[in-house]
Design a protein that fits this description.
With 260 residues, this protein is mostly helical. It is built from 10 helices and no strands. α3 packs parallel to α7 (113-137) and α8 packs across α10. The longest helix is centred in the C-terminal third of the chain and has 49 residues, at 211-259. The chain is globular and about 65 Å long.
Length: 260
């Protein structure tokens, strides 16, 4: 009996690290992937920030930013001031937390665990990468009259734009995955990309960010969504493997008992 058992498990010591990681509990897999994604995204964002602020391209980039900002300041109107305020509010911390809270709550009630995790992880990755990037780059805000009070964070990147991409594009992805009707999907994919664009333009208009801050934040938001998808997928694979192992273990025992 001992020899059969040894033969059954002879290959176990040679299991790869990857196979061991797949045996982790799904929450641990998701958490590890999320942290790794946040670090990698922060590295990418810092690299972009350094190109914008401290490379040989910086004078041209900064000069272009300044020309756009001065043009915006000259062409402000009372109506545009109001509309840009709405765009800024759409991605304010309170709005993002409210929309995310309602969406995640509905998903949890419907037992769509992975969908809820996708939104939550996306916002976590975006926020942590944003904080690390803005602290390391520390870019000053535009030198024009600002229409909002100056935040504690620096100008690069635009957290509003990144968060808007995560929450609004993320919701569009979830809606598309559950609703097949074109009457719902088409309007969803018209509105979802327009909201982050509206937010980004509003932040530049109000003098809160340079145009390149907003452009770089597209990488921040899309990157956060990609890493969130990866984390959720990895957790789902881990859950499937653990389920398969629970089914396979009794079969191995029965096979071993029959051989002995």
């Amino acid at each position: 009996m001992g020899s059969v058992a040894n033969a059954e498990h002879a290959g176990e010591p040679s299991r790869t690290i990857g196979e061991n990681l797949r045996a982790w509990p799904p929450p641990a897999v998701a958490a590890t992937t999320s942290v790794a994604g946040s670090i990698l995204l922060a590295v990418v964002m810092v690299a972009i920030g350094l190109v914008i602020t401290r490379s040989f391209l910086s004078p041209r980039i900064v000069g272009w930013d300044g020309s756009v900002e001065r043009w915006v300041e000259v062409h402000r109107t009372a109506t545009l001031n109001t509309w840009s305020d709405v765009g800024s509010i759409l991605a304010g911390a309170g709005t993002i937390l409210l929309v995310a809270g309602i969406a995640i709550g509905v998903l949890l009630i419907r037992r769509l665990w992975y969908d809820a995790a996708f939104l939550g992880i996306g916002l976590f990755i975006e926020f942590t990468a944003f904080l690390a990037t803005e602290a390391l780059i520390d870019r000053p805000h535009p030198a024009i009259v600002r229409l909002n009070s100056l935040p504690a964070t620096s100008s690069f990147p635009s957290g509003h734009t990144g968060a808007a991409i995560v929450i609004y594009i993320g919701l569009a992805l979830l809606i598309s995955s559950h609703v097949r009707r074109s009457a719902v999907r088409i309007p969803t994919w018209i509105v979802a990309p327009l909201l982050p664009i509206y937010v980004g333009v509003s932040r530049v208009y109000r003098g809160m960010h340079h145009p390149t801050d907003v452009m770089a934040s597209v990488v921040l938001g899309v990157g956060a969504l990609c890493f969130a998808l990866l984390a959720v997928h990895a957790a789902a694979v881990a859950a499937d493997r653990r389920r398969d192992r629970r089914v396979e273990t009794p079969r191995l025992r029965e096979r071993s008992e029959v051989r002995t």
